[in-house]
Specification:
heterodimer; A: alpha/beta; about 35% helix; globular; B: alpha/beta; 2 domains; 5-stranded mixed beta sheet; about 65% helix; binds adenosine-5'-diphosphate; binds magnesium ion
């Protein structure tokens, strides 16, 4: 669906995206995980034709996103909220619909569907200005879907969002996936990538460090699990690739008062790949 | 086109919901026009101006006297005089706003007999929007006329000539009774003898005496008129409408009000492009299948429609509420269209000057205020020094006001509209093309 081939983008002396190659399959939820400044937004901007790469190529459904027809396959929810504060939720959706040549009737119907999808039907007529961060994010997302795109690019869709809205956004992403859309989801929250994405690319300083399913990434780069065994006041930490065996042994000994297993996660993967934490 | 229309409608909706924007675009210009129109009305054309006033002098007489008079006007530091051969051209220059007033020195100016109380005649026409300077010009002309009267008697040759003329006239006239004739003949005869014997035949020492004598002579010759005015100014009412009066103050202040509204418009939409870029909505517009030019044309269309709306609203208020009667509605439509195009181009250019909204707004208004000051969109008009007149040509505000005034009360023919409207259209098209090229699409 989307293929990036050795994409490079420099801003002055800074290389924001460095020879990045990716292939995103139709219908998959692909996560682009990396800390702030890793080059995620720059990658999205080049994918949708907003920025011209210094070198490398982008192909969307076999075409160049500089072509408007090709671009129409994509829906983007930019990291910076790209909606009008003084317009209502419905007006925002309908306005962006009008840019894709939807008729008045189609726009109204599409707006109803999308307001329903993002759970803002009862706030449809209210100006976005008074919305919470999470509600604005949902309007921002709805506007990306107005032309029924095959692929949706969500750039940090949970930035500045309360836990409840975050949960609602996860549900929306799952619904979009079930509708058969290809989804690119950028985030610096590893638990989101872990929860939502079939495959994850880990990006840092513009470079793609690893790309695979979450399980495979953990198996390959996560290292060993840590099993903590409590015996009254004392505690033992065991690093192991076979946490189940360690647990069975501890339980068989009969003196354990508590056990705890820390499985490696994408955070550990990132730490092992870069020597830094994702949140730095 | 549908997409451009959708973009423009969105911007109009946003404008309507922006209270400050609405105020500066629609209400402030109306307040401006009414407020200053009323003040102007109360002042009856305003007070005195300062600086040089640009006038045209047409010397139809071509005598030494008329040339001297024209030179005296030219020598005055308050006037910048351009000579012209014919009256039609002079009237045209004032109508078109190139000069503030014209003065025609008609044939016979040099041969009037001051002794008979015949005043020197002059024909004066003042741009109705610059009545403040009109008063100044009338005052100056009168002063020059007195100076000339006085100097006539200080120069022995001309005084003698006039004395002889007077004697001839007295001989021929029937207006005087024999006693008066006798006294005058005796007095003037001895004056003639005195002047003939005056040493050097040059300037008589003690000019005061000569002047006084002359004054007496004039009084007597005029049959004892108490106050002799040596000059008679025939005022030409330029651009009068059916009522026979010049334009009302509102006909002058409403076009200025329109300019303020349009400047508010242009800077508002210019800033909104910067806002859209920096907030990110422009990003989404660019991902739509639109192309950059249509995004900008949408903004331009919104600016254009608002501009037309402001102008239409003010013109309706001026017509219905303040008795302004546009001379030509079709030409006014052409003028407003051209002004709107010009300011769309200016809007586009302004959107390129600042990276942030605050910068774009600040720089935008600074540029607008300079345009307004140079172009006469700002009061007090009369205080503009003459050196600014050529500078004002660079201001689109000047051409905008001229085009609108031309259609409302300057009585422009379509051919007269060509220059200001052509300049405005060129400003609009070049400004838009240049602005679109220079516009930085990336967020900061
Ligand atoms: N328009 C720009 N001009 C200069 N530097 C930029 C620009 N956009 C992004 N950058 C820089 O490029 C790097 C990558 O930015 P970005 O792609 O936004 O990262 P992310 O989205 O992963 O947080 C950052 O160091 C950022 O400061
Ligand atoms: Mg980003």
């Amino acid at each position: 669906m989307i293929t990036l081939d050795t994409l490079t983008k420099r801003f002055g002396s800074l290389t924001a995206v460095d020879a990045l190659s990716l292939a995103i399959e139709p219908g998959e939820v692909f996560g682009l995980l990396g800390p702030n400044g890793a080059g995620k937004s720059t990658t999205i901007a080049m994918t949708v034709g907003l920025l011209r790469p210094d070198s490398g190529t982008v192909s969307v459904g076999g075409g160049d996103p500089a072509d408007a027809q090709v671009r129409a396959l994509l829906g983007v929810a930019p990291q910076a909220l790209a909606i009008y504060d003084e317009l209502s939720a419905r007006e925002n959706i309908q306005f962006f619909g009008s840019l894709y040549g939807l008729s008045g009737k189609d726009r109204a119907r599409r707006a109803d569907e999308l307001l329903e999808l993002v759970g803002l039907t009862d706030r449809a007529a209210d100006r976005v200005k008074g919305f919470s961060g999470g509600m604005k994010r949902r309007v921002n997302l709805a506007c990306a879907l107005v032309h029924d795109p095959k692929a949706v690019l969500l750039d940090e869709p949970t930035a500045g969002v309360d836990p409840q809205s975050r949960h609602a956004i996860f549900e929306i992403v799952r619904t979009l996936r079930d509708q058969g859309r290809t989804i690119v989801y950028t985030t610096h929250y590893m638990e989101e990538a872990q929860k939502l994405c079939a495959r994850v690319g880990i990006i840092d300083k513009g470079r793609l460090l690893a790309m695979d399913t979450v399980d495979a990434l953990i198996a390959q780069h996560g290292g060993q699990s840590v099993v903590r065994i409590e015996r009254g006041e004392t505690q033992e930490r065991v690093q192991t690739a076979e946490p189940l065996a360690v647990l069975q042994k501890a339980l068989a000994a009969g003196d354990a008062t508590g056990v705890h297993v820390e499985r490696p996660d994408l955070e550990t993967v990132f730490l092992n790949l870069t020597g830094r934490s994702l949140r730095d | 086109m549908n997409e451009i229309w959708a973009l423009a409608l969105k911007d109009l909706k946003l404008l309507v919901r922006d209270k400050a924007g609405l105020f500066f675009t629609f209400f402030f210009p109306v307040l401006y026009a009414i407020f200053f129109g009323t003040i102007f009305g109360g002042m009856g054309g305003g007070g005195g101006g300062s600086g040089e006033t640009a006038i045209v002098v047409v010397d139809q007489d071509g005598t030494d006297a008329s040339r001297e008079f024209a030179a005296a006007l030219d020598a005055d530091s308050r006037l910048a005089v351009t000579p012209m051969p014919d009256r039609a051209g002079a009237e045209e220059a004032v109508k078109k706003g190139q000069k503030t007033a014209f003065i025609v020195i008609p044939e016979g100016f040099g041969s009037v007999s001051l002794f008979r109380g015949e005043p020197m005649k002059l024909i004066v026409g003042v741009d109705p929007s610059r009545q403040a300077e009109g008063g100044l010009i009338q005052g100056l002309i009168t002063a020059k006329a007195y100076e000339r009267l006085q100097s006539s008697f200080m120069n022995a040759d001309s005084a003698r000539e006039m004395t002889r003329d007077a004697l001839d006239e007295i001989a021929q006239t029937d207006d005087l009774n024999p006693l008066q004739k006798g006294i005058l003949n005796t007095f003037l005869g001895s004056l003639d003898t005195f002047l003939e014997q005056a040493p050097d035949a040059g300037v008589i020492g003690g000019g005061d005496g000569g002047g006084d004598d002359g004054g007496d002579g004039g009084d007597s010759a005029g049959g004892g008129a108490a106050a002799f005015n040596p000059i008679e100014i025939e005022s030409v009412e330029l651009l009068a409408d059916e009522s026979g009066e010049g334009p009302s103050p509102y006909a002058i202040t409403f076009p200025q009000g329109i300019i303020w509204g349009i400047m508010g418009c242009a800077s508002g939409f210019g800033i909104s492009l910067v806002t859209e870029r920096n907030k990110g909505t422009l990003t989404r517009l660019r991902t739509a299948p639109l192309g950059r030019s249509r995004v900008l044309l949408g903004k331009g269309l919104a600016c254009f429609m608002t501009t037309i709306g402001v102008a239409a609203m003010l013109l309706v208020i001026a017509t219905v509420g303040f008795g302004v009667r546009p001379g030509s509605v079709p030409l006014l439509a052409v003028a407003v269209f051209s002004v709107a195009v010009a300011f769309v181009g200016i809007m586009m250019l302004l959107s390129t000057v600042g990276k942030t909204e605050a910068a774009a707004g600040g720089i935008g208004w600074a540029v607008m205020l300079v345009f307004a000051m140079l172009g006469g969109g700002m009061l007090p008009l009369a205080f503009m020094p003459a050196w600014m007149a050529p500078v004002s040509h660079i201001s689109p505000v000047k051409w905008s006001i001229l085009a609108m005034e031309g259609a409302i009360w300057r009585g422009f023919a379509p051919a007269d509209m060509a220059l200001p409207c052509g300049i405005l259209l060129a400003v609009g098209l070049i400004g838009f093309a240049l602005g679109a090229r220079l516009f930085d699409w990336n967020e900061h």
